[in-house]
Specification:
There is one protein chain. This protein has 390 residues and is mostly beta strands. It has helices at residues 2-11, 25-31, 47-54, 179-182, and strands spanning 84-95, 102-119, 122-132, 138-146, 154-161, 194-204, 208-215, 238-247, 251-263, 269-282, 286-297, 309-320, 329-340, 347-359, 362-373, 379-389. It has a 16-stranded antiparallel β-barrel. The protein has two domains: 1-145 and 377-390, no CATH class; 148-345, Porin (Beta Barrel). Helices cover 7% and strands 48% of the residues. The protein is built from four helices and 16 strands. A hairpin with a 2-residue loop joins strand 2 (102-119) and strand 3.
Length: 390
């Protein structure tokens, strides 16, 4: 039976798509250029694509033809054609860890995306989930970005992933996610995924990058504001700071710290801090990403007499492009590790991923993951799909 299921998986194709702010075909249409200019393979960003995103989705060396409408009012800037794109993602998978066997997850998600420059040095970006895992999930990324406010200082206001200055989960090639970013003990609502707030980034001469975030610390799980119009669940604001340094053309190291508090429904408070280090090494054919995170919660279950909970973990990710920038085949490996005083968070898994670009915005993917330790015990997971954006 298992052999039959495995063969069936190899024959089934799920509809899929990838791309967000970092992989949005509307930008290729706007500038009339290939997705390869910024991505290889999409949604992974090349240095040119990183500069494009950092400049507010504007190519400083290329004018967009007829981008704004001529209204006769110098104080009114209207985009002539609203830039939009669609993402659809699905998989055929075999997973024995949750009492499941063959599953056709098609569509796994459907997104509507839009982004671009509103006027000089002011841009916007958002995407809306029409469907994620069978339900309307709403907004994740949704922000206004002010570029070069003072020197190289950029400011983003809205909703974004707290981990964006570290590694962007939306850029990953694997179905398997970065587990440590999502790990939170007890009833805590604090993690390194999506939150609402302000992000400031600044680039110094010599390859030093700085980032500061001020966020609610409540996440976006309960997306509705309370009757008073507040999204924050308490009076506290949380802070993340990061510094990274380029060492030559191929190596970058970084460190970050996060501090904050949250109040439970019973009025008790959980104080949280996180600290970590990361590194990236790149060459024309290989990229290695490393992340480590240490976390402490003094009362994540909001109980009297609670003891501190320690959580730590990280990941190692390797991307292989056999023909460098011209690769249509690629491979990726991801190892996730989480250890916590709360055993249900413990996780160790290794993933192997491969893909082939049928077109620049359409790729066939396959992935195998083996969980050595998880809340479901040991288990394998296999899957294939198609990834496209248009």
């Amino acid at each position: 039976m298992k052999k039959t299921a495995a063969v069936f998986i190899l024959l089934v194709v799920g509809l899929g798509a990838a791309g967000t702010l970092e992989a949005m075909p509307a930008f290729a249409r706007k500038y009339q250029m290939s997705c390869k200019t910024c991505h290889n393979p999409f949604p992974r960003l090349k240095p040119y694509g990183e500069d494009f995103a950092g400049d507010g989705f504007v190519l400083k060396d290329k004018e967009a033809p007829r981008y704004t409408a001529d209204t006769g009012d110098g104080l009114l800037s209207l985009i002539r054609d609203l830039p939009v794109a669609v993402r659809i993602e699905g998989y055929a998978s075999f997973n024995s860890g949750k009492g499941e066997s063959l599953d056709l997850s098609t569509p796994y998600l459907v997104k509507f995306l839009s982004g671009g420059e509103l006027f000089r040095d002011v841009s916007y970006y958002f995407y809306f989930f029409f469907s994620e895992r069978g339900k309307v999930a709403g907004l994740e990324d949704a922000f206004i970005m002010f570029n070069d406010v003072v020197g190289d200082l950029d400011v983003a206001v809205g909703q974004f992933a707290v981990s964006d200055p570290l590694f962007k989960g939306e850029l990953r090639l694997t179905y398997e996610n970065y587990r440590i970013y999502r790990s939170k003990p007890g009833l805590s609502g604090i993690d390194l995924t999506y939150d609402r707030g302000i992000m400031l980034t600044y680039g110094l001469k010599g390859g030093t990058d700085l980032a500061l975030e001020v966020v609610n610390g409540s996440g976006i799980g309960d997306s509705e504001a309370n009757p008073g119009g507040r999204f924050d669940a308490d009076k506290y604001k949380n802070f993340l700071g990061r510094i990274s340094q380029g060492l030559g053309d191929r190596f970058r190291v970084g460190a970050f710290g996060y501090v904050g508090k949250e109040k439970g429904a019973n009025g008790l408070v959980n104080s949280v801090w996180m600290a970590g280090a990361d590194a990236t090494w790149t060459s024309p054919k290989l990229e290695l990403n490393l992340q480590y995170v240490e976390r402490r919660d003094d009362n994540p279950s909001f109980l009297l007499g609670a003891t501190e909970v320690a959580t730590r973990g990280g990941f190692a990710e390797l991307i292989w492009l056999p023909r460098g920038d011209d690769s249509r085949w690629y491979g990726a490996g991801l190892f996730n590790w989480v250890d916590s005083d709360q055993d249900q968070l413990d996780y160790r898994a290794a993933s192997l991923h491969g893909g082939h670009l049928l077109q620049r915005n359409f790729r066939l993917v396959g992935e195998a993951t083996y969980a050595f330790r998880s809340s479901y015990g040991r288990y394998p997971r296999f899957g294939i799909g198609l990834v496209t954006a248009f």
